[in-house]
Amino acid sequence: LEETAPTLMAKMRSVYPHDEVFGRYCTVNDYVDCPPDELFAYLADTRSLQEWTYTLRDFTPTEEPGLWLAYDRLLPDTRIYTRTVASSEARTVDYHCAWDQGAHLWMIYLMRVLDAQVVLGKPGSVVLWTNCRHRFYDHNPYPHTAPSERSGWVGDFWDLFGAGHALELNNLKTIAEYRHRQGLPVRPVWMRP
After folding, report:
1. SS3 state of residue 127
2. What 3-state class would DSSP assign to 47?
């Protein structure tokens, strides 16, 4: 420790540049006072995104099983396709998404719900959420599928992902905690098959 402490201390800062923290990966996390299995079931339903995200609305199933079409209100007339890949054993929920086309879902939102009793010693959940900066965030790989009048691209907003995802995670926390405390199902009845 005596030999490595100076190296460790040199890597620590009181302030970190935004790009150093959120340049290649965007990770947010929080504690949620809600049982992990209930929170996982809610997140594993793709339609939950229209409740806790700021811009995804009007989810409808496509002809391809498991693939959903919605609208990303971030920019006008922007379609977003989403497929949810979930593992109940690991409590992972990965949203595979793409703007404008559903053949190549390259925007991957990786989420994990942990049992807070195990990791914090108290009831509830810990949510870990990470995005990786895929090279397509820098340019639209499918410009022919984009609406002609749209002037922006999802990657234009990468620098806001950290702050935006933190707000959305707070929405998720607020919704799940409210329903849990009121004795309501965290995954509403209208989402059930």
Report:
1. strand
2. helix
Which tens digit of pLDDT belongs to each residue from 87-141?
Answer: 999 999 999 999 999 999 999 999 999 999 999 999 999 999 999 999 999 999 9
Buried b (16+ CB within 10 A) or exposed e, 32-64: bbbbbebbbbbbbbbbbbebbbebbeebeeeee
d(CA 137, CA 153): 8
Stretch 71-88: mean pLDDT: 96
For residue 193, is pLDDT > 80?
no
Q: Is the pLDDT of residue 16 over 70?
A: no
Element (H, E) at 153: none
d(CA 6, CA 18) in angstroms, rounded, equals 24
Secondary structure of residue 15 in the 3-state scheme: coil
Q: Please calculate the CA angle 28-120-174 and round it to the nearest 5 degrees.
A: 50
Residue 183's identity, in one-letter code, is: G
Predicted confidence (pLDDT) at residue 163 exceeds the cutoff of 80? yes
Long-range contacts: 162-170, Cβ < 8 Å, 24+? Answer: 162/18, 162/21, 162/22, 162/26, 162/28, 164/54, 165/26, 165/28, 165/129, 165/131, 166/28, 167/54, 168/52, 168/53, 168/54, 169/28, 169/29, 169/30, 169/127, 169/129, 170/30
The whole-model pTM stands at 0.90
Residue 67: closest CA among 38, 110, 98, 91: 98
